[in-house]
UniProtKB/TrEMBL annotation:
Signal peptide limits: none
Xref: SUPFAM superfamilies: ARM repeat
Region feature (Disordered): 466-498
ARM repeat residue numbers: 337-389
Domain of life: Eukaryota
Ribonucleoprotein is among the record's keywords: no
Source organism of the structure: Pongo abelii
UniProt similarity note: Belongs to the ARMC6 family.
InterPro entries noted in UniProt: ARM-like, ARM-type_fold, Armadillo
Record-linked PROSITE patterns: ARM_REPEAT
UniProt keyword annotations, A-Z: Methylation, Phosphoprotein, Repeat
SMART domains according to UniProt: ARM
Descriptive protein name: Armadillo repeat-containing protein 6
Source organism phylogeny: Eukaryota, Metazoa, Chordata, Craniata, Vertebrata
Keyword Coiled coil: no
Length: 498
């Protein structure tokens, strides 16, 4: 009960007796409710301790009024006290509420004042003011996720939704601001989007398919609404969002921001990341993207417009790898010319013909991930080897030896190419793949995905001795570090790349 809770925390060393600092709450992630009770030791391990924004603000106000602290000191003291009790303050706005200019209102946070002003301007149908307040709202929410959380608690969604509907009368500028505000608000809070919002979002994207900026912002809303929210994904797919996403890539094929957002949204549609549902429709969504919306062709064609943009190419390749989920899809990538593009990109990266090092490494990782994905088809394995893919993979691993992600994807791609293919294993080993893999294993002994000792069974079956004369005995069978992986004894990483 509350009394025992206050008593418990009042015994904490350095604790200041305060009616506010004792009112701890516990957040129930399944229901979204705050529980005013002290958990058992078992519950404490399962539930994060949270407080309401009002509780934090009251503690800050008490520090100012009763202990004569300045605003910054009062906030710092409150933060230290709550954190010493194990309270999670990640969703708390850690500033002192401000008094209004005329002093006529209670002190409030900037985000709440903006929300109040926005609500008033929307109710009065003053578009210029609405646009200004939406811009301010976006800026404040981008600065601190706690502002987004507080705004959502205080009814920001229905206010923004009303502004959004006001903008659909034909004010394109206001419509863009409304979508921007919605995307910021739903970032990490997908539950906010209701049925009306979902329907209006699809309608807005449909009516404004020719407008790149509106399309980009609208697709960002789709992505935020679907991340870790299976029901929103299914509802949006049923509402027809998939052809809007692939259509955006086709229609705005030279607009980098649109292509990037559309790729991200398509990938999110293939996620199975909502812990609240026993299973999702990720596989079905991927099939729909490919079979009903020509997703593979759309993505492969889009690469041709961005051959000098490794960032967008990474997005496109990463999306391709998420869609290569069936044998025939892997073959379709080859038939559409995707394999030649992938091998060419890898060669260009190895020849230093693209961008800065970090963006190049990310592109290399995504190309390797895609090659590994399509190598699930045995015929495609042979096609990759014939296209010179093994040489490019080995060169990429050697060139980016310091990157554990590139090494992991390279090793995994070589493993897939060798699987059930003794001739491919021989080609890989003779082409320096075994040496490169050994170097990667030595460079990253703590990365299980790079430790691929068993992956070369095909090479041994083909009569190729892995590591002969290359120091493999030292690299693979030396005593491992305590607590580290066992070199040479771990399977190749089975999952798709990041």
């Amino acid at each position: 009960d509350g009394a025992s809770l206050c008593s418990h925390w009042s015994q904490t060393p350095g604790f200041k007796q305060s009616s506010h600092l004792g009112l701890l709450k516990h957040w129930d992630h399944s229901s979204g409710a705050s529980i005013d009770c002290m958990p058992t030791s078992t519950q404490a391990k399962m539930v994060s301790k949270r407080i309401a924004q009002e509780t934090f603000d009251a503690a800050v106000r008490e520090n100012i009024e009763e202990f004569a602290m300045g605003p910054d000191e009062a906030v710092k003291e409150a933060v230290e006290q709550f954190e010493s009790q194990g309270v999670d303050l990640s969703n708390i706005v850690k500033t002192a509420p401000k008094v209004s200019a005329d002093g006529s209102q209670e002190p409030t946070h900037d985000i709440l004042q903006t929300l109040s002003d926005l609500q008033e301007s929307v109710a009065s149908s003053r578009p210029q003011e609405v646009s200004a307040y939406l811009t301010r709202f976006c800026d404040q929410c981008k600065q601190d996720k706690a502002c987004r959380f507080l705004a959502a608690q205080k009814g920001a969604y229905p206010i923004i939704f009303t502004a959004w509907k006001l903008a659909t009368a034909g004010d394109q500028g206001l419509l863009l601001q409304s979508l921007n505000a919605l995307s910021v608000l739903t970032d990490g809070q997908p539950d906010l989007l209701d049925t009306q919002g979902l329907q209006l979002l699809v309608a807005t994207l449909t009516r404004n398919a020719d407008e790149a900026d509106l399309t980009c912002s609208g697709i960002r809303c789709v992505r935020h609404a679907c991340l870790k929210h299976e029901q929103n994904r299914q509802d949006l797919v049923k509402a027809g969002v998939l052809p809007l996403l692939t259509g955006a890539i086709t229609h705005h094929g030279h607009h980098a921001d649109v292509v990037r957002e559309a790729c991200c949204a398509l990938r999110v549609m293939t996620f199975d990341d909502d812990i609240r549902v026993p299973f999702g429709h990720a596989h079905n969504h991927a099939k729909m993207i490919v079979q009903e919306n020509k997703g593979l062709k759309v993505l492969i064609e889009a690469t041709k417009a961005f051959l000098d943009n490794p960032g967008i190419l990474s997005e496109l390749c990463g999306t391709l790898s998420r869609l290569a989920i069936r044998n025939e899809f892997c073959q379709e990538v080859v038939d559409l010319g995707g394999l030649s593009i992938l091998v060419s990109l890898l060669a260009d990266c190895n020849d230093h013909q693209m961008g800065d090092q970090s963006s190049v490494q990310e592109l290399v990782k995504q190309v390797l991930s895609t090659l590994r994905a399509i190598a699930g088809n045995d015929d495609v394995k042979d096609a990759i080897v014939r296209a010179g893919g093994t040489e490019s993979i080995v060169a990429a691993m050697t060139q980016h030896l310091t990157s554990p992600q590139v090494c992991e994807q390279s090793c995994a791609a070589l493993c897939f190419l060798a699987l059930r293919k003794p001739d491919n294993s021989r080609i890989i080993v003779e082409g320096g793949g075994a040496v490169a893999a050994l170097q990667a294993m030595k460079a990253h002994p703590q990365k299980a995905g790079v430790q691929v000792g068993r992956a070369w069974d095909g090479g041994r079956q083909a009569g190729v001795g892995f590591g002969e004369g290359m120091g493999a005995e030292t690299g693979l069978h030396a005593d491992p570090k305590p607590g580290g992986p066992q070199p040479g004894l771990l399977e190749a990483h089975p999952g798709p790349g990041g």
